[in-house]
Amino acid sequence: MKLLLLGADGQVGWELRQSLAPLGEVSVADRVCADFEQLDALRELVRASGVDVVVNAAAYTAVDRAESESDLATRINADAPGVIAEECERLGALLVHYSTDYVFDGEKVSPYAETDAPNPRSVYGSTKLLGEQAIRASGCRHLIFRTSWVYSGRRNNFVRTILRLAQERESLSIVSDQIGVPTSAAMIAEVTARCIEHAVNADGPSGLFHLTPTGETSWHGFASYFLDLARNGGMELKADEIRAIRTDEFPCDATRPMNSRLCCDKIRDAFGVELPEWRFHVRELIARMLEQENA
Ligand SMILES: NC(=O)c1ccc[n+]([C@@H]2O[C@H](COP(=O)([O-])OP(=O)(O)OC[C@H]3O[C@@H](n4cnc5c(N)ncnc54)[C@H](OP(=O)(O)O)[C@@H]3O)[C@@H](O)[C@H]2O)c1
């Protein structure tokens, strides 16, 4: 199988480099090789690749900045996936793409299913929804995985930011009334590879799937959990007070959903994947960070 991985330097993209390798011959493209602002060049790159599967892990993910850069966010999150999808349709290739819980308004009281109506409240969420729609409209075979609260040992993410702040400050204030599921980039990449193996056959499952671990927590619950793990593992942290605050006490440019939980029954049923409880990969990551710190 020949695969093209776009966005290979992002959190998920980086993990995909490893998880896709056993599937076949993988061509890897970062922003330098495939700039999503250059739509004609992007189209040409996908067309010339002649691959069986395109995996798109690139996205405009600066949620707050998107509020003032909606044109750029639209180009990267909506126009570019549309172009990639059109070329996948031409090639007869499977397109794998990622979307977000931010397509929902967060007002539902239970986890969102794939059949629930999206209603984004932010520019980022709106552009990601447009990207999903462009892929569907192209008619290409696709897997769209909507996920949430992604973290890894690289780049800017909640885990790395909070660990840094906990080393610098004595007290932290973290939002406790938004509920969701922290999702490891490594887990997304592992599940993606499993699903591609099934979906690459023309009669395999395809479409939109929610993908997160099981369980749920708040940002405050998430932070408290990994800060305890880090402290108990010997990491020196200044912060001994982790205050729980409400969303309205931490104003941001973009509105976030209060309920980010995604129901993942469909992906389990279609692909037979087992999804771990969210703490599993958090423990793995903190253990790895502690190992690196002590090396
Ligand atoms: N992060 C989350 O919490 C979260 C939650 C739900 C869904 N998702 C979705 O999951 C997917 C993966 O997210 P992630 O967390 O891995 O994102 P990420 O770490 O921010 O990585 C995004 C990648 O996209 C690349 N990119 C940005 N602008 C580009 C452009 N103009 N041309 C080409 N590449 C460009 C970035 O390039 P550089 O390396 O040059 O910056 C980066 O490698 C995305 O579709 C995202 O919307 C993420």
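^ NAP complex. DSSP finds nine helices and twelve strands in the chain. The longest helix spans residues 70-91.
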